[in-house]
Structure formats: structure tokens, C-alpha cells
Design brief:
Blueprint: H1 12-15, H2 22-38, E1 42-45, E2 50-53, H3 55-63, H4 67-76, H5 83-91, H6 106-115, H7 127-140, H8 147-174, H9 177-192, H10 209-217, H11 230-237, H12 243-252, E3 256-266, E4 269-278, H13 284-287, E5 290-298, E6 305-314, E7 322-329, E8 337-344, E9 351-357, H14 387-390, H15 400-410, E10 416-419, H16 426-438, E11 446-449, H17 453-466, E12 474-476, H18 481-490, E13 493-496, H19 498-505, H20 512-515, E14 519-522, H21 533-549, E15 555-560, H22 566-573, E16 580-582, E17 594-596, H23 604-623, E18 628-632, H24 635-651, H25 663-670, H26 676-682, E19 686-689, H27 695-706, E20 712-716, E21 727-733, H28 738-748, E22 755-762
Parallel strand pairs: 10-15, 10-16, 11-13, 11-14, 12-13, 14-15, 17-22, 18-20, 18-21, 19-20, 21-22
Antiparallel strand pairs: 1-2, 3-4, 4-7, 5-6, 5-8, 8-9
Helix pairs in contact: 3-8, 5-7, 7-8, 8-9, 11-12, 15-16, 19-21, 23-24
């Protein structure tokens, strides 16, 4: 641009005081971004200059389609399109705008229009008609006369595959079942150079033309071929000697059998377990190493795609059954059925379609509404009516949730369920029940169950310090029965994991200290659907059973995040409808913003790479100068993500973006770090935290983050931290089940944290997208 300003339209005003033409380049980028945004390929924030690609943009990038063509497809593709419309939209592609209609070609084009099977609306003078006809001529394998028209057909054919694939994916993303099928058929027709109405036997390499010709003369449906033996096939085609060959080819045609079992998850959500069984003979020369298929679930009208995913059948599993779990919505009134289709990505007429009837479907009852958060006057701490209890709290009033549950927890001995968002003060709610127990004479001991050992250690440290003024002994179990019985005997409050209490309480009849506990606090009870769920369920059920057979009635107080089926859990623990408090996730003492960004890359390393940049942009955009935590799926990913974030900082020429202290002040701490990779990232204000770090490294990283020295922390899902005020969370969930969201948010975020903004990058797996 400096060498030829006129050629690049660089005016004199750009050259004044801007030797590097930064403003000119910024204007070019801005102009390009505006055009891409207008075409629907990106979302462009003009204030920050941040780009975010859309589904259309990703499709355009993958298939290398011009943004002008994508704008045309976005405008002309409709949910009720047929094959005629699809050919016409293809012909409108900007890639073919320079193909002319020459005078000498008009006669030949007129003849071709009469010969091709798909009607062409435009006349021979229009380039659109020429592109349409030449694509059909290529599929039909028609011979052309002029050299120029052959050259044009080759150019169209070379671009047809990727353009039609792009149109197919657009229809797939938009959920249009009809256009999606037509586009996929057109893809395969271009690749195979045959029409769908022709015999599928044409798709086999080196098959004799005589067999294909005779098969196409018979108006015999393809699906009936599979019911005939070799002699019958030979007689049908009229070539008895070729019957064996035809039968072998028919049985090599990719065909899958599918069976489906429907399981209602909620009133509006169905889980469908699909069993896919290959029903053909694998031939490596014909099928290669793998065969891709599309699994599609359509509504009762066959118009809307409710679910889609790609299924790849590999040679070594060609004889095995394959199981796929699909989650789809269901509406009121219940439709008669859905359709599940498995369609080959390469073979025409290779499709299996199964209707799934809902005639006898029994759905669960609708979930009861959440407990309304009443606008009560905040309860003062003096309501405890005990000066020693009041001294435990440094504030003057309880929050609204604590105020509403106070009467049930502190003035009665009823079993209580409290479901509320993380950070809303459920720990203090559990303390109400403890203080109620300890206000009695000769109070029996209490047990608190935490799902994980890390949470046990945190709770022991917190309550030991808090209840020291009450002379209460707070201890944790070790997992060794002899030691644990001694600990239980001398403590006022025992904190343990479900497995530790399970081991101790199995022989409750012979262990009086186990059978006479006065209070069981079941914390994070939503994890009953997680990995510790079976053990957790057993210990709570056993506690209820023991309470019914012993003189000391054990009170159960359960704490959880907000749940849909809280009433069921309340009934299970013995809580009445008046003592089940299940507040809405929106009932938070602090505001919460949730941003969802989905990813559907099947290859895990590529998925992690694709998620890294949006996570970094979220930190830059939302966090400002606040501390930020990025949660990832594994400890290995912690180190890799920290490195990726550092790379993006270096690319922005701001490598110390996340460092809030001078390097000299940080050096003494770095010298004590045992993991050298951690020490390196900490120099730039980025730390990582996972269960495999040494105790010293964990302590240093936690201290640096809590003091604000580093502003970015990448943590694995088992990390437990107390977050500074206004912490920004970027949560990257590999399998985005709602249950996982509740579980991890409860485990990771200390209840006393004040989380102001959460940016969640949820990655739903294809089989669990809810």
C-alpha cells in the first residue's frame, strides 16, 4: 500500500502522521467485518472490535464459500424447498457470476434443457439456466459439443461438491428436514453421477452395465431386493447366471437396522435409547475403512429436525451393535410419534426410517413450582435468643432465604429440605439446625455429610474455628473403623464423606454411638445423581430407617442447589410440604449473568483448542480487572489451557494482562513452586490448580489468587476455592448436563463467595444436549 497508494485506494489523509497505515488497515478490517455481519457470518461488536463466528460463518469457512454466496443461501433457502428450488439456489452462487452464455452455446443449451430431468424455469439467455443445466448434464453424464461449454461444466462440477455440502449443513442447522434430505441426496448424486431414481446397483464399482440396465427396466422397489435369494434375483433381472453376483452386491449395500426404547426424563424431555445393528457384509474395497451416517430425529410431520448427529461405522466394529442415547423435547399435546432416520452420507437410497409411537407413553407429572421468595423483613441475629449464638455472626441481619427458613430449622425438629442457588447462605441454614440441637440439654451428636474429602477438610476448618467459642468438638472421620468410632464418641459434630459414614453405620445395631445421632446434615444432596450418588442414597435411607427403630429420633436436614424434583427428595427424607424450601435459581442475593456458547466438535483436542479463544475473549470482555476462574474438564487440560491463554496474551502484546503485582514481589513465591510449568505461567499472572499439585503448590496458588496477585486461574472440576468479591467464572463443561452444572457449581464455589458474573461455555455432547 505504501508502494502503490493509488492501486490500494490510499488517500493522502491516511499518509499524514501514520507511516504504518494503521488507520487504513483498521478501516479495511472494519469494512470487512460489517460485510460479514450483514451476511450473518459473524457477530461484530463495534465498541470492542470483538468477532464471534456464527453457524453460517463456520460453514462458510469449512467449505470455503464466499460470504456473498452465503448471503444468497441465507436469503433463498426456505423450509418448504423442493429439488427444483435447490438447483436454482445453487445456480445463484456468487462463484459462478463470471460464467457467460455465449451465442454459439444457446442452441446446445436449449437441447439440454429438454433432456435434463429437473425443470429449469429460466430461459437459455440467462447464466442461471446454463449453470443449472450443466450441473444436471454432469450428473446425467451427457456428452457436450463445444470446448468452452465443457470447460464451464468442469468448473461447475469442481465447486458443486463443497457448495451443496454447505447448503446441506445450513438446512441441517436450521432444522429443515425436507430441504436437508434434498440437499444430501443432491450431494450424493453429484458424487456418484447418477440420479436417485436410478438403480442403487450403479453405486458399486466395476458392475456390468448390462445388470444395471436390466435392473432399471424393472419397476421393482429396491427394499424388496433384500427378500430375494440368488435364483430369484437372477430371474428378476433376466440374467440367471448373474444371480449369485447380484445377491452378494445386494448384501454389501450399507443397511442398518435400528431399534428404539423411549424413556421420559421429565414432562417435556424424552430420552431415546437407539440400538443400531449393521445388516450388511463389509467389503474393504467397496466400503473403505469407515462409513459415515447421519442420525436424524424428525417431528410427526417430518418437517422439523429435533436432533441430528453423525455416526461413523468403522470396519472393525461392522458386526457389533451400537448404542446411541438421544435427548429430544416433547410438547403438549403429545404428538402421535417421532421419526428416527439413519441416512448414509455416501450411498443413495441407503436409509432406515423408524417411527417411534407415543400411544402408550406415560409422562411424569409436571414439576411443582419453586418456593416463592417472600419479601420478609430481614431477621435480626438477636432472634437466636442466645448471646453465645449471636456472637458467631459478624453481621446484624440474616438474608431473605435464611429469614424464610428460620422458623422451620430453629424452632422445630422437623426434617427440612433447603434448595437454593450456590452462594445464597445455605451453610448458615444448616447451622440453624445445629444451634437448635445444641440448645437442648445433653444434646446428642450431629453428623454432616459432604460429598468429597476436600469439602470435608474445608468444612472442618471453618466450623472448628467458628464453634470453638461454644466448646464444641468438630472432627472428621478417617475411614478406619476403630479410629472413627473413637472420634465419633468424643466429638459433638462429625464431618465425613458418604462412603466413610456408610462404612461406620452398616453395623448400627451394635454401635450405639452411630444409632443415637440427633442430626444428620446432608450437604450437596443434588449429587445423589452423580458419582457418589448410590452411597449417598444408602446412608440417608439407612438413617431414616434407624430413626424409626431407635428411641433417639434423628433429624435430617438436606441442602442442595435449586432442583426441579425437590418435592420427591423432600418426601424421601421425610420432610412435609411445609418444610420443603426449593427456591428458584433466580433467587440470588447477588445478580448473576449466564452466557451460553455451545461447541460441537467431536475431536476432543480440537474442541479444547476451539474453546480456548472464546474463553479468553470472555475474560477480556467481562472481567475487566476482576479475578477470573476458568474451569476445565481434567487436570491435563489445566496446564494446556493456561498455556493457550498465555499465548493469546502474547498475541495481544499484553502478556502481563493478568499480573497485578511487581515481578520482584512474586519471585520469592515462585522459587518455592515445585511444578516448573506452573511457575512459568504464574510469572504472567496465570495459574492452574488441580488435584495432582503438591500441597505447597496448591497453597501458594490459592494465596496468590485470593490476594489478587494473579487474576486468572485455570482449575479442574474438583477445585474448591473461596472466591474474592466479584470473581468472573468461565466454566467449560465437556458434557453439558444440567446435573453437572449444579454439581460443579456447588462443589467449586464456596458458599461464602460473592460471585457476580459467570460466563459458561457449555459443551453439550451430541447424546446429552438438554
Amino acid at each position: 500500500m505504501l508502494g502503490s497508494p493509488a492501486l490500494y485506494n490510499v488517500g493522502a489523509d491516511y499518509l499524514e502522521g501514520d507511516a504504518a497505515l494503521v488507520q487504513k488497515r483498521a478501516d479495511l478490517v472494519h469494512s470487512a467485518a460489517v460485510l460479514l455481519e450483514k451476511g450473518g457470518l459473524i457477530r461484530y461488536d463495534r465498541a470492542t472490535g470483538v468477532f464471534q463466528s456464527t453457524d453460517l460463518g463456520r460453514i462458510a469457512s469449512h467449505y470455503y464459500v464466499a460470504y456473498t454466496s452465503m448471503s444468497i443461501y441465507n436469503k433463498h433457502l426456505k423450509p418448504n424447498m423442493n429439488m427444483i428450488d435447490l438447483f436454482r439456489v445453487f445456480a445463484l452462487s456468487n462463484e459462478f457470476k463470471l460464467i457467460p452464455v455465449r451465442q454459439e452455446e444457446k442452441l446446445e443449451l436449449a437441447k439440454l434443457i429438454e433432456r435434463v430431468p429437473i425443470p429449469v424455469k429460466e430461459g437459455v439467455d440467462e447464466p442461471i439456466a446454463k449453470i443449472n443445466v450443466l450441473l444436471q448434464a454432469y450428473i446425467s453424464q451427457l456428452k457436450l459439443g463445444g470446448f468452452d461449454i465443457v470447460t464451464d461444466m468442469v468448473f461447475i462440477q469442481q465447486s458443486a461438491g463443497r457448495i451443496i455440502r454447505a447448503m446441506f449443513e445450513i438446512c441441517l442447522k436450521k432444522g429443515w428436514a425436507g430441504p436437508m434430505r434434498h440437499a444430501l441426496d443432491l450431494c450424493k448424486m453429484v458424487e456418484r453421477r447418477m440420479w436417485k431414481s436410478m438403480s442403487p446397483l450403479r453405486q458399486f464399482p466395476r458392475i456390468r452395465q448390462e445388470i444395471v440396465t436390466k435392473a432399471e427396466r424393472k419397476e421393482f422397489p429396491w427394499y424388496r431386493y433384500f427378500d430375494l435369494d440368488a435364483a430369484e434375483l437372477g430371474e428378476l433381472i433376466g440374467l440367471p447366471k448373474s444371480g449369485q453376483l447380484i445377491e452378494s452386491l445386494v448384501h454389501k449395500f450399507p443397511r442398518l437396522d435400528i431399534q428404539a426404547h423411549v424413556l421420559p426424563l421429565t414432562r417435556s424431555l424424552l430420552k431415546i435409547n437407539v440400538t443400531i445393528t449393521p445388516d450388511f457384509v463389509w467389503d474393504k474395497d467397496i466400503h473403505g475403512a469407515s462409513q459415515p451416517f447421519w442420525i436424524v430425529v424428525e417431528d410427526v410431520d417430518g418437517e422439523q429436525i429435533l436432533y441430528h448427529d453423525q455416526f461413523v461405522l468403522r470396519e472393525r466394529f461392522a458386526a457389533d451393535e451400537h448404542f446411541v442415547t438421544i435427548t429430544v423435547p416433547i410438547s403438549d399435546p403429545v404428538p402421535p410419534n417421532y421419526y428416527i432416520s439413519v441416512i448414509s452420507d455416501r450411498w443413495l437410497q441407503a436409509e432406515t426410517r423408524l417411527p417411534v409411537a407415543f400411544t402408550h407413553l406415560i409422562r411424569p407429572e409436571a414439576f411443582p413450582p419453586h418456593t416463592s421468595l417472600l419479601d420478609l423483613q430481614p431477621l435480626p441475629v438477636t432472634a437466636l435468643h442466645n448471646s453465645r449464638f449471636q456472637e458467631l455472626y459478624s453481621f446484624e441481619h440474616f438474608n431473605k432465604i435464611q429469614t424464610q427458613v428460620f422458623q422451620a430449622l430453629f424452632t422445630t425438629d422437623d426434617n427440612v429440605f433447603v434448595g437454593a442457588p450456590t452462594g445464597s447462605g445455605k451453610t448458615i441454614c444448616a447451622e440453624f439446625a445445629l444451634l437448635r440441637l445444641w440448645s437442648k440439654e445433653n444434646a446428642p451428636r450431629a453428623v454432616c455429610i459432604e460429598p468429597y474429602q476436600e469439602m470435608v477438610d474445608m468444612r472442618v476448618a471453618e466450623w472448628s474455628a467458628k464453634f470453638a467459642s461454644l466448646n464444641k468438638e468438630v472432627l472428621a472421620l478417617t475411614g478406619e473403623s476403630a479410629n472413627d468410632l473413637a472420634i465419633l464418641r468424643k466429638s459433638d459434630l462429625v464431618i465425613c464423606t458418604p462412603s466413610q459414614w456408610d462404612q461406620l453405620s452398616r453395623r448400627w445395631k451394635s454401635r450405639k454411638d452411630v444409632s443415637t445421632i440427633g442430626l444428620l446434615i446432608a450437604d450437596e444432596l443434588q449429587l445423589i445423581g452423580g458419582d457418589v450418588g448410590p452411597t449417598y442414597e444408602v446412608v440417608v435411607s439407612r438413617t431414616r430407617f434407624v430413626a424409626q427403630h431407635e428411641s433417639v429420633k434423628t433429624r435430617i436436614v438436606a441442602c442442595s442447589v435449586s432442583l426441579s424434583n425437590a418435592r420427591d427428595l423432600g418426601d424421601w427424607i421425610g420432610a412435609s410440604s411445609q418444610t420443603v424450601f426449593n427456591f428458584s435459581p433466580a433467587s440470588r442475593p447477588l445478580p448473576l449473568e449466564v452466557h451460553l456458547q455451545s461447541f460441537n466438535v467431536p475431536h476432543f483436542p480440537s474442541l479444547m483448542l476451539q474453546m480456548a479463544k472464546p474463553a479468553y475473549l470472555a475474560m477480556v470482555e467481562h472481567a475487566a480487572n476482576r479475578p477470573t476462574i476458568c474451569f476445565v474438564a481434567s487436570r491435563k487440560q489445566c496446564k494446556m489451557t493456561a498455556t493457550d491463554l498465555l499465548t493469546y496474551c502474547l498475541a495481544d502484546e499484553d502478556e502481563k494482562r493478568f499480573l497485578a503485582v511487581e515481578e520482584e514481589d512474586l519471585e520469592p513465591h515462585l522459587a518455592r513452586i515445585q511444578d516448573q510449568d506452573l511457575a512459568e505461567t504464574l510469572r504472567y499472572g496465570i495459574g492452574f490448580y488441580h488435584e495432582a499439585l503438591s500441597a505447597l503448590d496448591k497453597k501458594i496458588v490459592t494465596a496468590l489468587f485470593e490476594e489478587g496477585a494473579i487474576k486468572c486461574l485455570v482449575a479442574s472440576k474438583v477445585c474448591l476455592l473461596s472466591l474474592p468479591l466479584g470473581t468472573q467464572l468461565t466454566i467449560r463443561i465437556q458434557h453439558g448436563l444440567y446435573r453437572s452444572h449444579h454439581t460443579w457449581s456447588s462443589s467449586w464455589v464456596s458458599r461464602h463467595s460473592t460471585v457476580k458474573n459467570i460466563d459458561m461455555s457449555i459443551t453439550p455432547s451430541p447424546t446429552s444436549c438438554k
